Amino acid sequence: MIEYILGHINYWFIIAVMMVGLYTLISRTNLIKKLAGLAIFQTAVILFYVSLGKVTGGTVPIVDEAYTLYSNPLPQVLMLTAIVVGVATTALGFALVIRIKEAYNTIEEDAIFTLDQKDHE
Amino acid sequence: MMINDLILRVVTKWLSPIIILFALYVQFHGDYSPGGGFQAGVIFSTAILLYALTYGLDAALKVIPETALRVAASFGVLLYGGVGVVSMLLGGNFLNYSVLADTPLAGQHIGIIVIELGVGITVAAVMILLFFTFSRRVDPE
Amino acid sequence: MSLMLNLVLLVFLLVMAIAVLKTKHLFAMAMLFGLYSLLVAGLFVVLDAPDVAFTEAAVGTGISTVLMLVTLASIKDGHEAVSTTQRKIGPLIICLVMGGLLIFGTHDIAKLGEIHSPPNDQVAAHYITQGQAETGVPNLVTAVLASYRGFDTLGEVTVVLTAGIGVLLLLGQRRKIHVKKRGQAHDDQ
Hints:
The structure holds 3 protein chains of 3 kinds. By secondary structure, chain A is mainly α. In chain A, 76% of the residues lie in helices and 0% in strands. In chain A, α2 (31-52) packs antiparallel against α3. Chain B has one domain (6-135). Chain C contains 8 helices and 2 strands, in the order ααααααααββ. Chain C has 2 domains: 1-80, Four Helix Bundle (Hemerythrin (Met), subunit A), CATH 1.20.120; 118-180, no CATH class. A two-stranded antiparallel sheet of chain C has the order 1-2. Chain C is mainly alpha-helical. Chain C is globular and about 60 Å long. Residues 182-189 of chain C have low confidence and may be disordered.
């Protein structure tokens, strides 16, 4: 039982961070805070995948004569791609926020919604 | 722009070439130590960002004009795709590096170094371009 | 020992994430976000992934935080407005349910550091044993990224270029274009 908890508590903490990021994304109305929540969520998912590849007693996956046991390189490669795609998404999101501010003069989602409703009447 | 701060000016002048040198080291030593194209590109862009923050956007634009950045960004992806097409022309599949040289091992080496260079160039150019485009929207005080 | 280090860093990470959620001052949030990225980079080093740590530290703490600060400087809106309370119960329930389902799903995952788990047994074993012989590169992450999975990396570089093009299209005009409330757009002088 203790061994089960000690072996899985990493994943539970990472899921908690993921859920905090998701909660920031869907409950706050400020657009920049939503983007920060999205970035936290993405980084927590990446952390989860990389921790799947860890091998106890292993070392960094760079081949050397002195070591025999290596950690799994495959999740690290896939998550490298994911990090760069995440920053591309975040950069585009910030560009959209700047344009929204110039068009509506606010970055609160409720205010933008009311302005849009008034426009469509 | 913080050109009136003496410490920032001197430290930036000394640190920028060291950061660029470190970026080149990470780029080309990525085969033997942690590193590679992405990290090197971002570190290179950090050097230019530091220069732009200290000396102002106009001084940074004199160092690297914006047309050069747009050309460099596309050139990196072109280099990457070019390696794939060259390996197709030489008889192998797309992005099969073993046909690029006499022995498969030498071909893999050449292929990996060239595509990492392409990745590094594109990532550096795009990050610097992002920063310049964003900071043009900031009203001068 | 490394489990203790892992846990300490993860607790700090959770505290940082809650701080980003709770703070109302957006510049402080940008700084906390940079600190969060740095902690994640530290966790990657503990988890034997220096390449990923390098990228996360450079990209998360460097580029993302700088872009957030430049956006805030361009918007000049440094405080978050106090949000209404109606929105908080629904999202909380959604997050709790989803977190519960995910924790229930981790029951089948092997414990942290298991040598013979499904991710470590299949293709990755081939990469570790044959990687240097087939590609001539000791760094297995570079070998897999550039040679075995080179096509994915081509897609990734294209995504970076597309993000650059997108930002240039959105923000590339020298003059600011303001859209009037009634739907007429005109250029500023």
